[in-house]
Amino acid sequence: MDELKLIFDPTKEHLAQIESWLIEEDMNNKNGFYCTWIIIVDYFEKNRIGVLLLNDWAIGFITWSESTKMARIEIAEVHPGHRKKSYGGFMLKSLVEALKPKGIAVLDLHCQPASSEKVWKKLGFKKFPDVPGFDKENSLKDPHLYRIIVAHLKPAKAPTSKNLLILWSVEPYQADREQPRWVWDVTFHPNSSRLTFPIIIPAKRDWNLRWAIDGKTVTENKIKKFGQNEIDFGDFLVIESL
């Protein structure tokens, strides 16, 4: 039986195997990621590459960068002769399983080429919110996608609790003239400031965020100035406690 696995400690021999079929693909089809070989080697040296092995032979790879709560998939490819076998999904699932224990909550990526958008959407990625500020990410020619990889609190269509977190997709000085874009019914672990489920959503750091209890504002400010806890992670808001 064939053995398929994603490893995070590949050898230079594995790297040479990948280089060999990337060169062949580039020569035969004039596509693929051999043009980024220097970058791939850099990820190898930084221990930010997973190599897909089929019977101990390298048939795919995925590279990424990471910060405190988010990771970005940079380059991913499967050998042309092994595509349409769900190997890409296997690589992604294995990477997610490795990143979760490190506290990573959300992934994003740049679809290169743009035609890869359909593939990534099948793997659970979605478009950024269709609001001002994410025009670049939602470009038809240069799309970006994201995927939340942990259990999280979904926005409420009809909020019912007295404890609410409210987010506008505008700055504070504009919030009085706009309806909030998202509202969450907030609950906590017993005797704790920690949310039962974290709030995770793409957001710009200058957007207005309000925490209200019984209709009274507890805290309101730009995301980047909201409170003592770090919640601003690039293009993502991640709130685990209040």
Tell me the count of domains: 2
Poorly predicted sequence stretches spanning 5 or more consecutive residues: none
What is the overall shape? elongated
Helix count, per DSSP? 5
CATH superfamily placement of the largest domain: Gcn5-related N-acetyltransferase (GNAT)
| CATH class bucket of the largest domain | Alpha Beta
Looking at the structure, the CATH topology of the largest domain is: Aminopeptidase
Mean pLDDT: 95
Account of the 3D structure:
- The chain has a seven-stranded mixed beta sheet, with helices on both faces. Strands 9-8-11-12 form a four-stranded antiparallel beta sheet, with no helix packed on it.
- The chain has 242 residues and is α+β, with helices and mostly antiparallel strands.
- The chain is built from five helices and 14 strands.
- It folds into two domains: 4-148, Aminopeptidase (3-Layer(aba) Sandwich); 163-241, no CATH class.
- The chain has helices spanning 12-29, 37-45, 87-99, 117-122, 172-175, and strands spanning 4-7, 49-54, 57-66, 70-78, 106-110, 126-127, 144-148, 163-167, 182-185, 194-202, 208-213, 216-222, 232-233, 236-241.
- The model has no long low-confidence stretch (mean pLDDT 95).
- Helices cover 21% and strands 33% of the residues.
Secondary-structure blueprint of this entry?
Elements: E1 4-7, H1 12-29, H2 37-45, E2 49-54, E3 57-66, E4 70-78, H3 87-99, E5 106-110, H4 117-122, E6 126-127, E7 144-148, E8 163-167, H5 172-175, E9 182-185, E10 194-202, E11 208-213, E12 216-222, E13 232-233, E14 236-241
Parallel strand pairs: 4-5
Antiparallel strand pairs: 1-2, 2-3, 3-4, 5-7, 6-7, 8-9, 8-11, 10-14, 11-12, 13-14
